[in-house]
Amino acid sequence: xxxxxxxxxxxxxxxxxxxxxxxxxxxxxxxxxxxxxxxxxxxxxxxxxxxxxxxxxxxxxxxxxxxxxxxxxxxxxxxxxxxxxxxxxxxxxxxxxxxxxxxxxxxxxxxxxxxxxxx
Length: 119
Description:
The protein has strands at residues 3-7, 10-13, 18-25, 33-39, 45-51, 57-59, 67-72, 77-82, 91-101, 104-109, 113-118. Helix content is 0%, strand content 58%. By secondary structure, the chain is mainly beta. Strands 2, 4, 5, 6, 9, 10 and 11 form a 7-stranded mixed beta sheet that branches. It starts with a strand and ends with a strand.
């Protein structure tokens, strides 16, 4: 069974930095597409950053140049380095793993970690 455990959230002032971690078990991150999603208060969950099985990355326009997604295959962990944080970055951040059975994708989610950016 795939389990994803996020950590690293917290309260930070605007302009500060945080690094989120997503530790996977029951799955291998290097074989999955991995993503970080933000759910801001009262809003739907939205993609922030993603990394494909081949290592290609993509980002929401709002975080380009500030956030970096990376993967440590030895630790089976995906990270989200968040710099230059803004109050609008506040929300619960979820890690998602997409496994493939042939061409059929299966999504797994972590429990989320709270990020609060004060102005």
